[in-house]
Amino acid sequence: VQLQASGGGLVQAGGSLRLSCAASGLTVSSYGMGWFRQAPGKEREFVAAISRNGFTTYYADSMKGRLTISKDNAKNAVYLQMNSLKPEDTAVYYCAAVQSISLSSVAERYDYWGQGTLVTVSS
Fold first, then answer.
1. Nearest 5°: phi and psi at 77?
2. Which residue stretches of the chain are H helix?
3. What confidence category does residue 103 fall into, taking pLDDT thresholds of 50, 70 and 90?
4. Cβ neighbours of residue 58 under 8 Å, at least 6 residues apart?
5. What is the reported pLDDT for 86?
6. How far apart are CA 80 and CA 96, in angstroms?
């Protein structure tokens, strides 16, 4: 199983980025998918999750209203649209997959992890 995250980069505060997570070895329609992030010197934290069937989404309060998580079953990929980015959003963003019917914000419940993509937001 591989989860290949991409789309990170340097963006000015207020800007937008769209992260992608391409899956191989698993089918995203059969997994709950999530995004987490880890800033330098901080613990990994939950960002967003989408249920196996794609009908339910859940967002971290700190980023709610600025995020949209989505799935494309045909491309076997998951996306995270991030708007109105702030310098405190700077972190490595990871996608993860959990073999559960429900979505989860708990990192320990996820079965597979990607390598991460760096998002840097300048002020």
1. -140, 160
2. none
3. confident
4. 48, 49, 50, 103, 105
5. 96
6. 12
